[in-house]
Amino acid sequence: MYYYDNFVLPFTIGLAALLVYLIVRYYKWIRSFPRVDQLKIRRGLFSRQTARSVKEVFMESLLHHKIFRTNPVLGYMHMTFAFGWFLLIIFGKIESMVYHTSAFNPIYFAIFFRYFHPAKETFPGSETFAFIMDLILSFLLLGVLLAVTKRFYSKMFGMKKTTRQRPYDLVILTTLWLIFPARFIAESFTAGANGGGSFLTHNAGEMFASFLPVADLSYGAWWTYSSLLGLFFLLLPWSRYMHIPTEMVYIFLKNWGVEQRKAYNGFSELQTNACSRCGICINTCQLNTSCGINDTQPVYFLRRLRNGEPYAAQAEDCLLCGRCEASCPVGLDLNAIRLSKRPDITRVTKESYAYVAPAKAKPARVAYFAGCMGHLTPSVIRSMRGLFERAGVDYSFIDEEAGVCCGRPQALTGNWKAAKVIMDKNQKRIESSGAEILVTSCPICYKTFREDYTLRVKIMHHTEYIARLIEEGHLSVRMNEGLRTVFHNPCELGRGCGVTEAPEKVIGQVSHRIPTAYDGKKSLCCGGSLANTAIDFGQKNKISADAVAAYAAYRPDVIVTACPLCKKTLGKTSPDIPVRDIAELVAEA
User: Fold this and answer.
1) Measured distance CA(502)–CA(462) in Å, rounded
2) Is the pTM of this model over 0.70?
3) 341: how many CB neighbours lie within 10 A of its CB?
4) Fold match between 350-468 and 478-588?
5) Matching CATH number, 261-340, of 3.40.190.10, 1.10.8.10, 1.10.1060.10, 3.30.710.10
6) Rounded Cα gap, residues 268 and 342, in angstroms
7) Mind listing the pLDDT tens digit for each residue in 540-570?
8) CATH number of 6-244
9) DSSP secondary structure, 443-482, as one string
10) What SS3 class is residue 253?
11) For residue 480, which phi and psi values (nearest 5 degrees)?
12) What would the CATH number be for the domain defined by 478-588?
Protein backbone atom coordinates (compact mmCIF):
# COMPACT_ATOMS: atom_id res chain seq x y z
CA MET A 1 0.00 0.00 0.00
CA TYR A 2 1.33 3.45 -0.92
CA TYR A 3 0.66 6.42 1.34
CA TYR A 4 -0.13 9.99 0.35
CA ASP A 5 -1.13 13.29 1.89
CA ASN A 6 -1.24 16.76 0.38
CA PHE A 7 1.47 18.05 2.69
CA VAL A 8 4.07 16.13 0.63
CA LEU A 9 3.46 18.44 -2.35
CA PRO A 10 5.83 21.31 -1.37
CA PHE A 11 8.70 18.83 -0.97
CA THR A 12 7.87 16.91 -4.15
CA ILE A 13 7.36 20.00 -6.34
CA GLY A 14 10.52 21.67 -5.00
CA LEU A 15 12.65 18.56 -5.56
CA ALA A 16 11.29 17.97 -9.08
CA ALA A 17 11.86 21.61 -10.06
CA LEU A 18 15.43 21.48 -8.72
CA LEU A 19 16.28 18.26 -10.58
CA VAL A 20 14.95 19.62 -13.88
CA TYR A 21 16.88 22.87 -13.41
CA LEU A 22 20.15 21.06 -12.60
CA ILE A 23 19.90 18.66 -15.53
CA VAL A 24 19.27 21.50 -18.00
CA ARG A 25 21.96 23.74 -16.50
CA TYR A 26 24.68 21.07 -16.41
CA TYR A 27 23.80 19.95 -19.93
CA LYS A 28 24.18 23.51 -21.26
CA TRP A 29 27.50 23.99 -19.48
CA ILE A 30 28.97 20.70 -20.70
CA ARG A 31 27.70 21.32 -24.24
CA SER A 32 29.70 24.57 -24.24
CA PHE A 33 32.96 22.78 -23.37
CA PRO A 34 35.62 22.54 -26.11
CA ARG A 35 35.40 19.30 -28.05
CA VAL A 36 38.63 18.03 -26.48
CA ASP A 37 37.08 18.26 -23.00
CA GLN A 38 33.88 16.56 -24.14
CA LEU A 39 36.00 13.66 -25.42
CA LYS A 40 37.76 13.48 -22.05
CA ILE A 41 34.37 13.10 -20.35
CA ARG A 42 33.38 10.21 -22.64
CA ARG A 43 36.69 8.46 -22.10
CA GLY A 44 36.60 9.04 -18.36
CA LEU A 45 33.11 7.68 -17.70
CA PHE A 46 34.25 4.07 -17.43
CA SER A 47 37.77 4.65 -16.18
CA ARG A 48 39.52 4.39 -12.84
CA GLN A 49 39.09 8.13 -12.49
CA THR A 50 35.38 7.61 -11.94
CA ALA A 51 36.06 5.39 -8.92
CA ARG A 52 38.58 7.97 -7.69
CA SER A 53 35.93 10.66 -8.08
CA VAL A 54 33.40 8.70 -6.05
CA LYS A 55 35.95 8.42 -3.24
CA GLU A 56 36.77 12.14 -3.45
CA VAL A 57 33.08 13.09 -3.36
CA PHE A 58 32.69 11.00 -0.21
CA MET A 59 35.82 12.44 1.42
CA GLU A 60 35.36 16.10 0.45
CA SER A 61 31.68 16.71 -0.31
CA LEU A 62 30.38 14.60 2.57
CA LEU A 63 33.15 14.31 5.17
CA HIS A 64 34.85 17.62 4.29
CA HIS A 65 38.30 16.16 4.87
CA LYS A 66 40.20 19.29 3.75
CA ILE A 67 38.20 21.57 6.01
CA PHE A 68 38.87 19.17 8.90
CA ARG A 69 42.59 19.60 8.30
CA THR A 70 42.17 23.39 8.35
CA ASN A 71 40.08 23.42 11.51
CA PRO A 72 38.51 20.30 13.13
CA VAL A 73 35.56 22.20 14.64
CA LEU A 74 34.78 23.91 11.33
CA GLY A 75 35.15 20.59 9.52
CA TYR A 76 32.82 18.87 11.99
CA MET A 77 30.20 21.58 11.50
CA HIS A 78 30.24 21.20 7.70
CA MET A 79 30.27 17.41 7.99
CA THR A 80 27.18 17.31 10.23
CA PHE A 81 25.12 18.98 7.51
CA ALA A 82 26.52 17.12 4.50
CA PHE A 83 27.16 13.64 5.91
CA GLY A 84 24.30 13.84 8.41
CA TRP A 85 21.75 14.66 5.73
CA PHE A 86 23.21 11.89 3.53
CA LEU A 87 22.85 9.34 6.35
CA LEU A 88 19.31 10.52 7.09
CA ILE A 89 18.33 9.87 3.46
CA ILE A 90 20.15 6.52 3.19
CA PHE A 91 18.93 5.01 6.47
CA GLY A 92 15.47 6.49 5.94
CA LYS A 93 15.26 4.76 2.57
CA ILE A 94 16.47 1.46 4.02
CA GLU A 95 13.94 1.74 6.84
CA SER A 96 11.08 2.37 4.38
CA MET A 97 12.22 -0.54 2.20
CA VAL A 98 12.25 -2.92 5.16
CA TYR A 99 8.80 -1.71 6.26
CA HIS A 100 7.34 -2.04 2.75
CA THR A 101 9.50 -5.09 1.90
CA SER A 102 10.04 -3.32 -1.43
CA ALA A 103 12.41 -0.77 -2.91
CA PHE A 104 9.58 0.74 -4.95
CA ASN A 105 7.86 3.39 -2.91
CA PRO A 106 7.44 7.14 -3.43
CA ILE A 107 10.52 9.30 -2.80
CA TYR A 108 8.68 11.26 -0.14
CA PHE A 109 7.74 8.12 1.83
CA ALA A 110 11.19 7.78 3.40
CA ILE A 111 11.36 11.51 4.16
CA PHE A 112 8.01 11.57 5.97
CA PHE A 113 8.11 7.98 7.24
CA ARG A 114 7.24 8.87 10.85
CA TYR A 115 4.01 10.53 9.72
CA PHE A 116 2.84 7.56 7.64
CA HIS A 117 4.12 5.07 10.21
CA PRO A 118 3.80 6.66 13.66
CA ALA A 119 5.51 3.58 15.13
CA LYS A 120 2.54 1.98 16.85
CA GLU A 121 3.19 -1.06 14.69
CA THR A 122 6.41 -3.00 14.67
CA PHE A 123 8.48 -4.45 11.86
CA PRO A 124 11.90 -6.15 11.78
CA GLY A 125 14.45 -3.86 13.38
CA SER A 126 11.96 -1.00 13.94
CA GLU A 127 13.42 -0.06 17.33
CA THR A 128 16.95 -0.14 15.93
CA PHE A 129 15.94 2.06 13.01
CA ALA A 130 14.20 4.49 15.35
CA PHE A 131 17.36 4.74 17.45
CA ILE A 132 19.62 5.26 14.41
CA MET A 133 17.34 7.92 12.93
CA ASP A 134 17.19 9.77 16.25
CA LEU A 135 20.97 9.56 16.54
CA ILE A 136 21.43 11.06 13.07
CA LEU A 137 18.87 13.78 13.83
CA SER A 138 20.80 14.63 17.02
CA PHE A 139 23.95 14.85 14.91
CA LEU A 140 22.23 17.30 12.55
CA LEU A 141 20.75 19.44 15.30
CA LEU A 142 24.24 19.82 16.78
CA GLY A 143 25.41 20.95 13.34
CA VAL A 144 22.68 23.61 13.25
CA LEU A 145 23.74 24.83 16.69
CA LEU A 146 27.38 25.07 15.55
CA ALA A 147 26.38 26.88 12.34
CA VAL A 148 24.41 29.50 14.25
CA THR A 149 27.28 29.90 16.71
CA LYS A 150 29.78 30.33 13.84
CA ARG A 151 27.69 33.11 12.33
CA PHE A 152 28.06 35.19 15.52
CA TYR A 153 31.30 33.86 17.06
CA SER A 154 33.48 32.90 14.09
CA LYS A 155 36.73 33.06 16.10
CA MET A 156 35.68 29.87 17.91
CA PHE A 157 36.10 28.15 14.54
CA GLY A 158 39.52 29.60 13.80
CA MET A 159 38.09 32.22 11.43
CA LYS A 160 38.69 35.92 11.89
CA LYS A 161 35.74 36.74 9.66
CA THR A 162 32.81 34.94 8.08
CA THR A 163 31.46 35.65 4.62
CA ARG A 164 29.19 38.70 4.42
CA GLN A 165 25.74 37.63 3.28
CA ARG A 166 23.10 39.37 1.13
CA PRO A 167 19.46 39.40 2.35
CA TYR A 168 18.65 36.62 -0.15
CA ASP A 169 21.47 34.48 1.26
CA LEU A 170 20.17 35.02 4.78
CA VAL A 171 16.69 33.83 3.72
CA ILE A 172 17.92 30.48 2.41
CA LEU A 173 20.45 30.19 5.24
CA THR A 174 17.61 30.56 7.75
CA THR A 175 15.52 28.07 5.76
CA LEU A 176 18.34 25.50 6.01
CA TRP A 177 18.78 26.13 9.72
CA LEU A 178 15.05 25.53 10.31
CA ILE A 179 14.69 22.30 8.29
CA PHE A 180 16.07 19.89 10.88
CA PRO A 181 14.50 21.55 13.96
CA ALA A 182 11.20 21.39 12.03
CA ARG A 183 11.69 17.66 11.46
CA PHE A 184 12.53 17.21 15.13
CA ILE A 185 9.32 19.04 16.14
CA ALA A 186 7.16 17.08 13.64
CA GLU A 187 8.53 13.69 14.71
CA SER A 188 8.38 14.58 18.41
CA PHE A 189 4.75 15.76 18.20
CA THR A 190 3.83 12.58 16.31
CA ALA A 191 5.65 10.42 18.87
CA GLY A 192 3.96 12.32 21.71
CA ALA A 193 0.53 11.69 20.17
CA ASN A 194 1.03 8.09 19.01
CA GLY A 195 4.01 6.67 20.87
CA GLY A 196 7.09 5.46 19.10
CA GLY A 197 10.30 7.31 18.38
CA SER A 198 13.47 6.68 20.31
CA PHE A 199 15.66 8.39 22.90
CA LEU A 200 15.31 11.86 21.31
CA THR A 201 11.88 12.14 19.68
CA HIS A 202 10.07 9.82 22.14
CA ASN A 203 11.23 11.66 25.25
CA ALA A 204 10.75 15.07 23.60
CA GLY A 205 7.27 14.00 22.46
CA GLU A 206 6.25 13.03 25.99
CA MET A 207 7.55 16.36 27.27
CA PHE A 208 5.64 18.37 24.62
CA ALA A 209 2.49 16.28 25.24
CA SER A 210 2.53 17.33 28.89
CA PHE A 211 1.64 20.93 28.02
CA LEU A 212 0.70 21.04 24.28
CA PRO A 213 -2.10 19.47 22.16
CA VAL A 214 0.49 17.58 20.08
CA ALA A 215 -2.15 15.51 18.24
CA ASP A 216 -3.61 18.71 16.80
CA LEU A 217 -0.26 20.34 16.14
CA SER A 218 1.59 17.45 14.50
CA TYR A 219 -0.10 17.76 11.09
CA GLY A 220 0.82 21.43 10.83
CA ALA A 221 4.39 20.57 11.86
CA TRP A 222 4.67 18.13 8.96
CA TRP A 223 3.37 20.81 6.56
CA THR A 224 6.00 23.18 7.91
CA TYR A 225 8.79 20.62 7.46
CA SER A 226 7.71 19.81 3.88
CA SER A 227 7.35 23.51 3.01
CA LEU A 228 10.83 24.33 4.30
CA LEU A 229 12.32 21.50 2.23
CA GLY A 230 10.45 22.62 -0.88
CA LEU A 231 11.46 26.26 -0.37
CA PHE A 232 15.11 25.28 0.11
CA PHE A 233 15.11 23.30 -3.15
CA LEU A 234 13.49 26.18 -5.06
CA LEU A 235 15.92 28.78 -3.71
CA LEU A 236 19.05 26.60 -4.00
CA PRO A 237 20.02 27.35 -7.66
CA TRP A 238 20.39 31.07 -6.91
CA SER A 239 22.18 30.68 -3.60
CA ARG A 240 25.53 29.58 -2.21
CA TYR A 241 24.06 26.08 -1.75
CA MET A 242 24.21 25.50 -5.49
CA HIS A 243 27.67 24.26 -4.57
CA ILE A 244 26.21 21.10 -2.99
CA PRO A 245 25.39 19.30 -6.28
CA THR A 246 27.79 21.31 -8.46
CA GLU A 247 30.85 20.49 -6.36
CA MET A 248 30.19 16.79 -6.97
CA VAL A 249 29.89 17.29 -10.73
CA TYR A 250 33.08 19.39 -10.70
CA ILE A 251 35.04 16.64 -8.94
CA PHE A 252 34.13 14.13 -11.66
CA LEU A 253 34.92 16.56 -14.50
CA LYS A 254 38.24 17.57 -12.94
CA ASN A 255 39.34 13.96 -12.49
CA TRP A 256 38.32 13.14 -16.04
CA GLY A 257 40.80 15.76 -17.21
CA VAL A 258 38.58 18.76 -18.00
CA GLU A 259 40.69 21.91 -17.60
CA GLN A 260 40.15 25.60 -17.01
CA ARG A 261 41.07 27.41 -20.22
CA LYS A 262 42.44 30.92 -20.60
CA ALA A 263 39.01 32.16 -21.66
CA TYR A 264 36.05 32.17 -19.28
CA ASN A 265 33.76 29.34 -20.42
CA GLY A 266 31.16 26.81 -19.26
CA PHE A 267 33.68 25.05 -17.02
CA SER A 268 34.53 28.39 -15.42
CA GLU A 269 30.82 28.97 -14.82
CA LEU A 270 30.49 25.54 -13.25
CA GLN A 271 33.43 26.21 -10.93
CA THR A 272 31.96 29.57 -9.97
CA ASN A 273 28.81 27.75 -8.86
CA ALA A 274 30.83 25.07 -7.04
CA CYS A 275 32.19 27.62 -4.54
CA SER A 276 30.70 26.88 -1.11
CA ARG A 277 31.53 30.36 0.23
CA CYS A 278 33.01 28.72 3.31
CA GLY A 279 35.17 31.82 3.83
CA ILE A 280 38.47 29.98 4.34
CA CYS A 281 40.01 32.04 1.53
CA ILE A 282 39.33 35.23 3.52
CA ASN A 283 41.65 34.14 6.33
CA THR A 284 44.42 32.88 4.05
CA CYS A 285 44.50 36.06 1.92
CA GLN A 286 47.38 38.37 2.89
CA LEU A 287 45.57 41.34 1.35
CA ASN A 288 43.11 40.85 4.20
CA THR A 289 45.50 40.02 7.02
CA SER A 290 48.14 42.66 6.15
CA CYS A 291 46.18 45.41 4.35
CA GLY A 292 42.63 45.02 5.61
CA ILE A 293 41.32 44.53 2.05
CA ASN A 294 38.42 42.14 2.53
CA ASP A 295 36.18 42.47 -0.52
CA THR A 296 38.33 40.90 -3.22
CA GLN A 297 38.82 37.31 -2.01
CA PRO A 298 37.46 34.49 -4.23
CA VAL A 299 34.33 34.10 -2.11
CA TYR A 300 33.32 37.66 -3.05
CA PHE A 301 34.80 37.72 -6.57
CA LEU A 302 32.99 34.51 -7.60
CA ARG A 303 29.77 35.72 -6.00
CA ARG A 304 29.92 38.86 -8.13
CA LEU A 305 30.37 36.72 -11.24
CA ARG A 306 27.37 34.58 -10.31
CA ASN A 307 25.17 37.57 -9.55
CA GLY A 308 26.14 39.53 -12.65
CA GLU A 309 27.58 42.36 -10.55
CA PRO A 310 30.58 44.57 -11.51
CA TYR A 311 33.79 42.66 -10.84
CA ALA A 312 36.62 44.59 -12.57
CA ALA A 313 38.11 45.93 -9.32
CA GLN A 314 38.08 42.47 -7.71
CA ALA A 315 39.61 40.87 -10.81
CA GLU A 316 42.58 43.26 -10.65
CA ASP A 317 43.06 43.45 -6.87
CA CYS A 318 44.69 40.07 -6.28
CA LEU A 319 48.27 38.91 -5.71
CA LEU A 320 47.55 35.65 -7.56
CA CYS A 321 49.80 34.06 -4.94
CA GLY A 322 47.63 30.94 -4.83
CA ARG A 323 47.21 30.76 -1.05
CA CYS A 324 43.43 30.76 -1.46
CA GLU A 325 43.65 28.09 -4.16
CA ALA A 326 45.83 25.85 -1.98
CA SER A 327 43.39 26.15 0.93
CA CYS A 328 40.16 25.86 -1.12
CA PRO A 329 38.38 22.69 0.08
CA VAL A 330 36.75 22.28 -3.34
CA GLY A 331 40.06 22.66 -5.24
CA LEU A 332 38.84 25.34 -7.67
CA ASP A 333 41.18 26.89 -10.27
CA LEU A 334 40.81 30.28 -8.63
CA ASN A 335 43.81 32.01 -10.23
CA ALA A 336 42.90 30.85 -13.72
CA ILE A 337 39.29 31.97 -13.32
CA ARG A 338 40.41 35.41 -12.16
CA LEU A 339 42.93 35.70 -14.99
CA SER A 340 40.22 34.82 -17.51
CA LYS A 341 38.31 37.89 -16.34
CA ARG A 342 41.20 40.31 -16.83
CA PRO A 343 40.58 42.00 -20.20
CA ASP A 344 42.80 41.24 -23.18
CA ILE A 345 42.85 44.85 -24.42
CA THR A 346 46.48 45.57 -25.29
CA ARG A 347 46.96 46.10 -29.01
CA VAL A 348 50.13 44.19 -29.74
CA THR A 349 51.35 42.70 -33.00
CA LYS A 350 54.54 40.99 -34.05
CA GLU A 351 55.82 44.38 -35.22
CA SER A 352 55.57 45.72 -31.66
CA TYR A 353 58.77 43.87 -30.80
CA ALA A 354 60.50 44.29 -34.15
CA TYR A 355 63.24 46.27 -32.41
CA VAL A 356 64.37 43.09 -30.67
CA ALA A 357 66.85 41.65 -33.12
CA PRO A 358 66.52 37.90 -33.78
CA ALA A 359 69.40 36.16 -32.08
CA LYS A 360 70.57 32.59 -31.94
CA ALA A 361 71.79 31.12 -28.70
CA LYS A 362 75.12 29.34 -28.42
CA PRO A 363 74.55 25.58 -28.79
CA ALA A 364 74.87 23.75 -25.45
CA ARG A 365 73.38 20.86 -23.52
CA VAL A 366 71.88 23.19 -20.89
CA ALA A 367 70.20 26.53 -21.62
CA TYR A 368 70.16 28.99 -18.71
CA PHE A 369 67.47 31.69 -18.62
CA ALA A 370 67.91 34.28 -15.87
CA GLY A 371 64.77 36.27 -16.61
CA CYS A 372 64.06 39.97 -16.07
CA MET A 373 64.20 39.82 -12.27
CA GLY A 374 67.29 37.64 -12.46
CA HIS A 375 69.09 40.42 -14.32
CA LEU A 376 68.00 42.84 -11.60
CA THR A 377 69.53 40.48 -9.01
CA PRO A 378 73.04 39.86 -10.41
CA SER A 379 74.24 38.01 -7.29
CA VAL A 380 71.96 35.11 -8.23
CA ILE A 381 73.36 35.01 -11.78
CA ARG A 382 76.94 35.10 -10.47
CA SER A 383 76.20 32.20 -8.13
CA MET A 384 74.58 30.13 -10.88
CA ARG A 385 77.50 30.74 -13.25
CA GLY A 386 79.91 29.68 -10.53
CA LEU A 387 77.92 26.48 -9.89
CA PHE A 388 77.74 25.66 -13.60
CA GLU A 389 81.49 26.08 -13.93
CA ARG A 390 82.33 24.06 -10.80
CA ALA A 391 80.10 21.24 -11.98
CA GLY A 392 81.52 21.36 -15.50
CA VAL A 393 78.13 22.00 -17.08
CA ASP A 394 78.00 22.71 -20.82
CA TYR A 395 75.59 25.65 -20.73
CA SER A 396 74.45 28.61 -22.79
CA PHE A 397 73.32 31.83 -21.09
CA ILE A 398 70.60 32.51 -23.63
CA ASP A 399 69.28 35.83 -22.31
CA GLU A 400 72.68 37.25 -21.32
CA GLU A 401 72.31 40.01 -23.89
CA ALA A 402 69.21 41.37 -25.67
CA GLY A 403 66.99 39.10 -23.64
CA VAL A 404 63.21 39.06 -23.96
CA CYS A 405 60.75 38.76 -21.06
CA CYS A 406 59.13 35.32 -20.67
CA GLY A 407 55.70 36.93 -21.18
CA ARG A 408 54.26 36.21 -17.76
CA PRO A 409 53.75 39.86 -16.70
CA GLN A 410 51.61 40.47 -19.79
CA ALA A 411 49.70 37.25 -19.17
CA LEU A 412 49.02 38.24 -15.56
CA THR A 413 47.21 41.34 -16.79
CA GLY A 414 45.05 39.18 -19.04
CA ASN A 415 46.84 40.24 -22.21
CA TRP A 416 47.46 36.80 -23.65
CA LYS A 417 47.82 38.07 -27.21
CA ALA A 418 50.66 40.36 -26.19
CA ALA A 419 52.26 37.57 -24.17
CA LYS A 420 52.06 35.19 -27.12
CA VAL A 421 54.07 37.57 -29.34
CA ILE A 422 56.85 37.69 -26.73
CA MET A 423 56.71 33.93 -26.16
CA ASP A 424 57.17 33.20 -29.87
CA LYS A 425 60.41 35.21 -29.92
CA ASN A 426 61.69 33.45 -26.82
CA GLN A 427 60.74 30.01 -28.05
CA LYS A 428 62.80 30.43 -31.22
CA ARG A 429 65.85 31.57 -29.25
CA ILE A 430 65.61 28.68 -26.78
CA GLU A 431 65.15 26.13 -29.56
CA SER A 432 68.15 27.53 -31.42
CA SER A 433 70.40 26.44 -28.54
CA GLY A 434 69.58 22.78 -29.17
CA ALA A 435 69.55 22.32 -25.37
CA GLU A 436 68.16 19.23 -23.67
CA ILE A 437 67.49 21.08 -20.39
CA LEU A 438 66.25 24.61 -19.77
CA VAL A 439 67.17 25.98 -16.32
CA THR A 440 65.75 29.20 -14.96
CA SER A 441 66.26 31.01 -11.66
CA CYS A 442 62.88 32.72 -11.78
CA PRO A 443 59.80 30.74 -10.67
CA ILE A 444 57.64 33.09 -12.72
CA CYS A 445 59.57 32.15 -15.88
CA TYR A 446 59.62 28.50 -14.80
CA LYS A 447 55.82 28.30 -14.53
CA THR A 448 55.39 30.12 -17.84
CA PHE A 449 57.81 27.86 -19.72
CA ARG A 450 56.07 24.79 -18.31
CA GLU A 451 52.48 25.83 -18.99
CA ASP A 452 52.42 28.32 -21.84
CA TYR A 453 55.30 27.31 -24.14
CA THR A 454 55.53 24.25 -26.38
CA LEU A 455 59.20 23.52 -25.71
CA ARG A 456 60.53 20.02 -26.28
CA VAL A 457 63.13 20.28 -23.54
CA LYS A 458 63.15 19.35 -19.86
CA ILE A 459 62.35 22.51 -17.89
CA MET A 460 63.88 22.83 -14.43
CA HIS A 461 64.00 25.50 -11.77
CA HIS A 462 67.53 26.10 -10.54
CA THR A 463 66.70 24.50 -7.17
CA GLU A 464 65.79 21.26 -8.96
CA TYR A 465 68.91 21.39 -11.14
CA ILE A 466 71.20 22.12 -8.18
CA ALA A 467 69.63 19.19 -6.31
CA ARG A 468 70.39 16.96 -9.31
CA LEU A 469 74.01 18.16 -9.56
CA ILE A 470 74.57 17.38 -5.87
CA GLU A 471 72.81 14.03 -6.09
CA GLU A 472 74.84 12.96 -9.14
CA GLY A 473 78.12 14.03 -7.50
CA HIS A 474 78.89 16.91 -9.85
CA LEU A 475 78.78 19.35 -6.94
CA SER A 476 80.30 18.74 -3.53
CA VAL A 477 78.88 20.90 -0.71
CA ARG A 478 79.82 21.43 2.94
CA MET A 479 77.26 21.22 5.72
CA ASN A 480 77.20 24.24 8.04
CA GLU A 481 75.32 23.05 11.15
CA GLY A 482 75.79 26.41 12.81
CA LEU A 483 73.85 28.23 10.11
CA ARG A 484 70.15 28.35 11.03
CA THR A 485 67.88 28.93 8.02
CA VAL A 486 64.17 29.12 7.21
CA PHE A 487 62.89 28.65 3.69
CA HIS A 488 60.46 30.96 1.95
CA ASN A 489 59.09 28.97 -0.99
CA PRO A 490 58.02 31.41 -3.75
CA CYS A 491 54.32 31.33 -4.67
CA GLU A 492 54.86 30.29 -8.29
CA LEU A 493 57.34 27.58 -7.33
CA GLY A 494 55.67 25.82 -4.39
CA ARG A 495 51.96 26.35 -4.88
CA GLY A 496 52.13 27.22 -8.58
CA CYS A 497 54.28 24.29 -9.73
CA GLY A 498 54.36 21.93 -6.75
CA VAL A 499 58.15 22.15 -6.29
CA THR A 500 58.74 21.75 -2.55
CA GLU A 501 61.01 18.76 -2.01
CA ALA A 502 64.08 19.80 -4.04
CA PRO A 503 64.71 23.22 -2.46
CA GLU A 504 64.11 21.95 1.08
CA LYS A 505 66.50 19.06 0.46
CA VAL A 506 69.23 21.35 -0.89
CA ILE A 507 68.94 23.80 2.03
CA GLY A 508 69.10 20.88 4.46
CA GLN A 509 72.37 19.75 2.87
CA VAL A 510 74.16 23.06 3.47
CA SER A 511 72.54 24.42 6.65
CA HIS A 512 70.34 23.63 9.62
CA ARG A 513 66.89 24.25 8.12
CA ILE A 514 64.24 25.12 10.71
CA PRO A 515 60.75 23.76 9.87
CA THR A 516 58.05 26.44 9.92
CA ALA A 517 54.26 26.65 9.71
CA TYR A 518 54.78 28.18 6.25
CA ASP A 519 56.64 25.33 4.58
CA GLY A 520 55.57 23.76 1.31
CA LYS A 521 52.35 25.10 -0.17
CA LYS A 522 51.59 27.15 2.95
CA SER A 523 54.33 29.65 2.14
CA LEU A 524 53.60 33.37 2.51
CA CYS A 525 53.62 35.72 -0.48
CA CYS A 526 56.51 38.19 -0.41
CA GLY A 527 54.18 41.02 -1.47
CA GLY A 528 56.10 41.83 -4.65
CA SER A 529 53.58 40.10 -6.89
CA LEU A 530 53.53 41.30 -10.49
CA ALA A 531 49.88 40.32 -10.67
CA ASN A 532 48.43 43.10 -8.53
CA THR A 533 48.42 46.62 -9.93
CA ALA A 534 45.67 47.83 -7.59
CA ILE A 535 47.66 48.19 -4.37
CA ASP A 536 50.41 50.75 -3.76
CA PHE A 537 54.03 50.22 -2.65
CA GLY A 538 53.14 50.95 0.96
CA GLN A 539 50.65 48.09 1.00
CA LYS A 540 53.10 45.77 -0.76
CA ASN A 541 55.77 46.63 1.80
CA LYS A 542 53.29 45.90 4.62
CA ILE A 543 52.65 42.42 3.19
CA SER A 544 56.42 41.89 2.86
CA ALA A 545 57.16 43.13 6.39
CA ASP A 546 54.48 40.87 7.88
CA ALA A 547 55.93 37.89 5.98
CA VAL A 548 59.43 38.69 7.22
CA ALA A 549 58.14 38.97 10.79
CA ALA A 550 56.46 35.57 10.49
CA TYR A 551 59.71 33.90 9.36
CA ALA A 552 61.87 35.92 11.77
CA ALA A 553 59.84 34.53 14.69
CA TYR A 554 61.81 31.27 14.21
CA ARG A 555 65.07 33.18 14.91
CA PRO A 556 67.01 32.13 11.78
CA ASP A 557 70.41 33.47 10.76
CA VAL A 558 69.25 33.67 7.14
CA ILE A 559 65.89 33.71 5.33
CA VAL A 560 66.41 31.64 2.19
CA THR A 561 64.25 32.01 -0.89
CA ALA A 562 64.41 30.76 -4.50
CA CYS A 563 63.21 33.72 -6.50
CA PRO A 564 65.07 36.92 -7.42
CA LEU A 565 61.89 39.00 -7.02
CA CYS A 566 61.21 37.53 -3.56
CA LYS A 567 64.84 38.11 -2.56
CA LYS A 568 64.62 41.81 -3.48
CA THR A 569 61.17 42.30 -1.94
CA LEU A 570 61.84 40.54 1.36
CA GLY A 571 65.32 42.06 1.57
CA LYS A 572 63.87 45.59 1.59
CA THR A 573 61.80 44.91 4.71
CA SER A 574 64.27 42.66 6.56
CA PRO A 575 66.92 44.99 8.03
CA ASP A 576 68.17 42.52 10.64
CA ILE A 577 68.09 39.11 8.95
CA PRO A 578 69.78 38.68 5.54
CA VAL A 579 67.71 37.24 2.70
CA ARG A 580 69.62 34.93 0.34
CA ASP A 581 68.83 32.84 -2.69
CA ILE A 582 69.47 29.09 -2.58
CA ALA A 583 72.03 29.46 -5.38
CA GLU A 584 74.03 31.92 -3.26
CA LEU A 585 73.87 29.62 -0.24
CA VAL A 586 75.09 26.61 -2.24
CA ALA A 587 77.81 28.61 -4.01
CA GLU A 588 79.22 29.57 -0.60
CA ALA A 589 79.07 25.95 0.54
Assistant:
1) 10
2) yes
3) 18
4) yes
5) 1.10.1060.10
6) 14
7) 999 999 999 999 999 999 999 999 999 999 9
8) 1.20.950
9) HHHHHHHHHH----SEEEEHHHHHHHHHHTTSS----EEE
10) helix
11) -110, 90
12) 3.40.50
